[in-house]
Write a structure and sequence with these properties.
By secondary structure, this protein is an alpha/beta fold. It is 22% helix and 27% strand. The protein contains eight helices and 13 strands. Strands 1, 2, 3, 4, 10, 11, 12 and 13 form an eight-stranded mixed beta sheet that branches. A three-stranded antiparallel beta sheet has the order 5-9-8. Strands 6-7 form a two-stranded antiparallel ribbon. The protein is globular and about 50 Å long. The N and C termini lie far apart (59 Å).
Amino acid sequence: MDKVVASAADAVADVGDGSSLAVGGFGLSGVPGVLIGALYEVGVSGLRVVSNNCGAMESGLAVLLSAGRIARVTGSYIGANKEFARQYLGGELEVEMIPQGTLAERLRAGGCGIPAFYTPAGVGTQVADGGLPWRYDGSGGVALASPAKEVREFDGQEYVLERGIRTDFALVRAAKGDRHGNLVFNKSTRNFNPLAAMAGRVTIAEVEQLVEPGEIDPDAVHLPGIYVQRVVELTAEQATDKQIERRTVSAPEDQPDAQGTVSG
């Protein structure tokens, strides 16, 4: 089955207001920015997003967030996204913060048809006991808090019950994909992308390199095409448009660094 669609706009055309989205990426690595941009152009709003974070440096999901298109975020990291923090603390955005490993497993479980699982992460905290602020009232008070979760003991240790996540759509980015939807991710871009793809009922993948079926060694496939419904081939310009969130390279020896200090 050829799953390639003509454009990103066509691929997201049926994403409506209030849809839930699982979105891959971590920081700026592996973010499906072209598909997110297409959603922005469509003008959908009230989106319920499940993603590790909500964009950075005015890119990725930050494009939708800054435009007020996102109503709820399920994630594990706010980071340096000041607009995310402002909307959350100002009562404009509902946010469910959960441990990062739990988020990954909830996405994977949803994609595998597992409705719920027990984990020790969060036992003895508000993650299990409830009371985490999901929405503030804009005046410093809590308008909506997380409910308590079931805690059960196994072999003398307590575990909290976490539910698997399924979303209406998933948006991911891959380094390579074929027309059947088999995907390969490059290094650190293989972060939340496979897990987000598994959780979506309709998964849309933007790929930097499109190849024909059979050109990817089956042993090299990171995500089988059974999880992918639509594939968008990126242009050469789109495929190479990658940002660096924070440069950490050292100054060459005997050269002044940013403070004017000479090393070596």
